[in-house]
Design goal:
With 192 residues, the protein is mainly alpha-helical. 60% of the residues lie in helices and 0% in strands. The longest helix has 31 residues.
Amino acid sequence: MPWTPPPGPSRRSLLAGAAATAGAALAGGCSGGSRPPVPPSGVALERRMRASAVRDSERLLERYDATAAAHPALAGRLAPLRSAVAAHAGALAWPAAGAGGAPGKAAGAASGSAAPTGAPSPGGTPPAGGVQVPPEPDKALAALADAEQALAEARTAALAGAPGELARMLASVAACGAVHAHLLTPAPGAAS
């Protein structure tokens, strides 16, 4: 018995239909529609997340500055960590930061200056921002380590809702914060 094709559309008609559908989809995509490549809500979410991350970094910078001002002997040890936090603030700022679109003070914070900006006035008033620093250097370092660790954990938790590039950046900054917390914590049994 000779072979007969099954009833229904031929392979040629199916291919022609698929080509027509693909052509229509391509033509619709090139029609100059007003749909942006990233939905506005995604941009707004990223902007809010970046602004919040920059504010968190700025608060951490204030804590570094207050600690260095309260304990000048620690300033040299804190300077490289503070510079990294300032760089994080700059990196987390909205990409248009240089054009005046930066939330907060990110452009100034990104300078990487290790000089404390919250130094007390000659009258001995607390540094700007009202950050309370423990009077003992070990406790001041522990408070700074706790702040670094808490922020690293918060940034790790924020990864789930962050867009791709921001998520990668938050992961990197969170890892760096965890390392800072480790560096600020004395080894058990170490002399201070």
